[in-house]
Write a structure and sequence with these properties.
single chain; 28% helix; alpha/beta; Spore Coat Polysaccharide Biosynthesis Protein SpsA, Chain A; 7 helices; globular; 11-stranded mixed β-sheet
Length: 305
């Protein structure tokens, strides 16, 4: 495959593949969906390489580290720099906040922080089990190539197009100002479709959401300065939440703090034209069918690598 360097400078892709995926009932990050058993991650890596990204950083659990290395290193060698980082429950957790009973990872913000020692360039953070399409990768690559503002970025997806027919989903629902900069993003953890409306199930009451809201599918573009704020915030988060075994430190928490403190802006980018993913086992057949249709259209070769 061609590997044009369209970015003219280094840009890294951070692939968050350490989640457990309890609702899927298997390790969806390395499950096969393409015609030759390709994972969803394969298509993201292919898109990133052809958009000109220069480094891939995998964030994985220790249990799947060797499998991920075996699957992806041979495909990427000679094309990009590759790093593997393990996100363990105790990584970056001070001794006083460790809890032997905790089994759940600390979330996407923690995954981001686990990579701070191997990333010194602008980078994009994505989920391993979401299919974003080539336009999203090209959009962010072009943004970092041409941007002079130093703003961070989020590829915005339309809320109504990123739900599941098989149950509730968690989404970062955003609001943007007239200049296209994010004003806030709120992690809504239980979003469902009910009676033609999009509803967020919350402790106090159900909340109806705007179907056209720009939504984060965890396709973030950051400058490395974000790590400093994220580190400070994670320390504060642990002080308050370390006894809650299910608490998670989400990337949107970091983004909101950047915006509200006025220490960074986040540009909402186009390119969110395709999204599909696997939350439930029932999603697998549809994902495979959609990948096939993109291959039939000529967006991807029958054999990626």
């Amino acid at each position: 495959m061609d590997t044009p360097n369209r970015t003219q400078k280094k840009v890294a892709l951070l692939v968050m593949a350490a989640g457990i995926g309890s609702r899927y009932g298997g390790i969806k990050q390395i499950d096969g969906f393409g015609p030759n058993g390709e994972t969803i991650m394969d298509y993201s890596l292919f898109d990133a390489v052809r958009a000109g990204f220069t480094k891939i950083v995998f964030i994985v659990r220790d249990e799947i580290l060797e499998t991920v290395k075996e699957k992806f290193l041979p495909k990427l060698q000679g094309k990009v720099e590759v790093e593997f980082v393990v996100q363990s429950i105790d990584k970056l957790i001070p001794a006083q906040y460790k809890n032997a009973e905790r089994t759940k990872p600390w979330g996407t913000g923690h995954a981001l922080l686990c990579a701070k020692d191997v990333i010194s360039e602008p980078f994009i953070a994505i989920n391993a089990d979401d299919f974003y399409g080539k336009d999203a990768f090209e959009s962010v690559a072009n943004y970092f190539k041409n941007d002079t503002t130093g703003a961070h970025a989020m590829v915005g997806f339309t809320l109504s197009k990123v739900l599941s027919e098989h149950g509730s989903v968690s989404r970062g629902v955003g609001e943007a100002d007239k200049d296209g900069y994010l004003q806030s993003v709120v992690e809504r953890t239980t979003i469902v479709k009910e009676n033609g409306k999009i509803i967020s199930k919350e402790k106090d009451a159900d909340r109806e959401l705007d179907p056209n809201a720009p939504t984060s599918m965890n396709f973030w573009g950051f400058h490395p300065e974000v790590f400093k704020l994220a580190s400070t915030m994670f320390e504060d988060f642990l002080k308050e939440h370390h006894q809650n075994l299910k608490s998670e430190f989400y990337i949107p928490l970091i983004v909101n703090e950047l915006i509200h403190r006025g220490i960074g802006k986040v540009k909402v980018l186009g390119g969110g034209n395709i999204w599909f993913g696997v939350t439930y086992k029932e999603d697998k057949e549809e994902v495979s069918a959609r990948i096939k249709s993109l291959i039939d259209k000529g967006d991807y070769p029958q054999k990626l690598w």
